[in-house]
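Human:
If only I could read backbone structure tokens as easily as an amino acid sequence. I am handing you a single protein, as its sequence and its fold in token form. I hope you can help me see how the letters and the tokens relate. Thank you; the sequence and its tokens follow:
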Amino acid sequence: MEQSRILEGYIKRIHGRIITLILLTAVLLTLIGVAATLGSYPISVIEVYATIFAGPGTGTEAATIVWDYRLPRILMGILTGAALGVAGAVMQGILRNPLASPFTLGIASAASFGASLAIILGAGVVAGGYLIAANAFLFTLIAAALVYGLAQVRGITPETMIMAGIAIMYLFSSLTSFLQYIGTSEDVHAVVFWMFGSLGRSTWETVTIAAVIFLFTFPLIIFFARSINALAAGDETATSLGVAVEHVRLIGMGGASLLTAGVICFTGTIGFIGLVAPHITRMMIGGDNRFLIPGTALMGAVILLGADSIGRTIMAPMILPVGIMTAFLGVPFFLYLFLRRRRDYW
């Protein structure tokens, strides 16, 4: 009798989590239609969906506006929010730290340095229009490798990885500040604008690249979701359950870094999504990473697309960078978490 009640409660929780994921998907689909109506060309939500379902080849003015200008921005916002949310959830899971994210571990600082290097000195690994993006992508992965390498010296533990991440963050922040000091005012302005974070540079080509990276990395992370769950009980317990702890941390850190690099190299640094989205999702559906990770992907996409939509309307026709809007939305939420007495969401 007791076992049947436990099983019934477990099934009920699973159903509740699935329903939450479905509702988040519905919210995201609705938000896509609303976001596509924003701009100088007037179009209704119904017309947006009709245009999307009709495809890009209809030749109408509405199709050109939606498919060539608005959908790339919207899809990049979805991919960026999902990638940063998943990266934050994975890092918090493998490090057992609610403040872990791609930005608190120095990965975003490395991307900013790579972009600054391209903008101010014109130095990079490729030539042409992708110089800034390639530099940001490369230095993001370099920072992740440095964090892992420094932590390995003292043993791969959550504490050593966090300390290594903080050191890397300050290293690349100081290097970026040095480049800004020696750069011209125009170059420094370009660096600062890049660091604000914006979806305005989105194209179908950048969306495709980001989507390929996300679709390659996301299933790999989901495959290790059970192992990340085991890490929550501690390294010794996870090892006794057959989890290769260091291997899982390496895969998790690499996957989170790749997701982050794949989007912020095109958008610039966008903060708080990797911190806020996992916490909100965890409060809604719990800490089971089998549901938390896809839920955080949806939540991150909803938050970022919603923040970009607000940024496009609050001071229209001026468009506020989405990185500024996520900070405005993220700070009150963290004050709310700070003032809460209950901690059962973590």
